[in-house]
Amino acid sequence: xxxxxxxxxxxxxxxxxxxxxxxxxxxxxxxxxxxSFTLNRGETLALVGESxxxxxxxxxxxxxxxEPTTGAVKFKGTDITTLDGATxxxxxxxxxxxxxxxxxxLNPRYTVGQTISEPMEVHNIGDAASRKARVEELLKLxxxxxxxxxxxxxxxxxxxxxxxxxxRALAVExxxxxxxxxxxxxxxxxxxxxxxxxxxxxxRLGLAYLFIAHDLAVVKHVADRIxxxxxxxxxxxxEKRALxxxxxxxxxxxxxxxxxxxxxxxxxxxxxxxxxxxxxxxxPPGCRFHTRCxxxxxxCRQQDPVxxxxxxxxxxxxxxxxxxxxxxxxx
Length: 331
Ligand code: SF4
Ligand code: MG
Description:
The protein has helices spanning 55-62, 85-94, 112-122, 128-141, 158-170, 188-205, 216-219, 240-245, 250-257, 298-302; strands at 3-17, 25-40, 44-48, 70-75, 78-79, 95-98, 176-180, 208-213, 225-230, 233-239. With 331 residues, the protein is α/β, with parallel strands linked by helices. Strands 6-7-8-3-9-10 form a 6-stranded mixed sheet. A 4-stranded antiparallel sheet has the order 2-1-4-5. Strand 1 (3-17) and strand 2 (25-40) form a beta hairpin. The two termini are 21 Å apart. The relative contact order is 0.14. It binds iron/sulfur cluster and magnesium ion. Its main location: membrane. Keywords: ATP-binding, Nucleotide-binding, Transport. Residues 5-256 form the ABC transporter domain.
């Protein structure tokens, strides 16, 4: 497998200014605070964490919708943070996004056909007739009848709208699709259909996905590898099976324990994670998870653990076995 995307020590810090005296900086939000990972062609890497952990900011940095404070994003070996003009446009064609909210992401004044063909127009692909044919082909690809091209977004259900959003992302034949919580706004009964569609399209088209999610249950069926984020950092990264069967970071364990168990009689075994996520303006010293970690020691309050062998925890090799009984099997 060849590497498609390399993210190196990426950070996004936002200065917070005093409302009255705009020039005075009163703080720094460290939304993304030193993130590194790779994504191979045809692979799915899930970025998982609670709201505010920096996963969506990471996704927007990867797509260069925002500029990083420091770090590099290499796509096919080229740092896209330095591109402009035609080379940036070429990258944009290759890296598309499927948004979380299929209700908000479709322009109500556009027909489905216009919505799907817009990226082709932006990138000067084909003429009107060939784009029309391509729209019909894309609708079939995502499991919708071609005549839907004439209809408007509001005439469709959430699951159908997300199919339209996927068709639009695929119109310009990207290598990378960032999926920003693509099923979390959908009914549970529809989620599996959309996840299955994404997997099927990946196999047929060789797509790589950066898949953003706030819990591990969703990514169980879609990820090859998983990166768990907490307060702007990756605290654990690894193959899905290893991460589910042998979670090493206490935060990963807590996220796994939070997945509802299919056997309700075992409910009592789940220990929910206590406390709130600290503000990204006020990240705790030492290990940023120490304020909520049941295993925290003095060293944790003093030294910031680095990500080593896929885990950022001083005690990773000393913790007792996780004992997480994750029923339901792995896809
Ligand atoms: Fe918990 Fe310490 Fe590991 Fe941080 S370094 S996760 S506080 S045990
Ligand atoms: Mg988000």
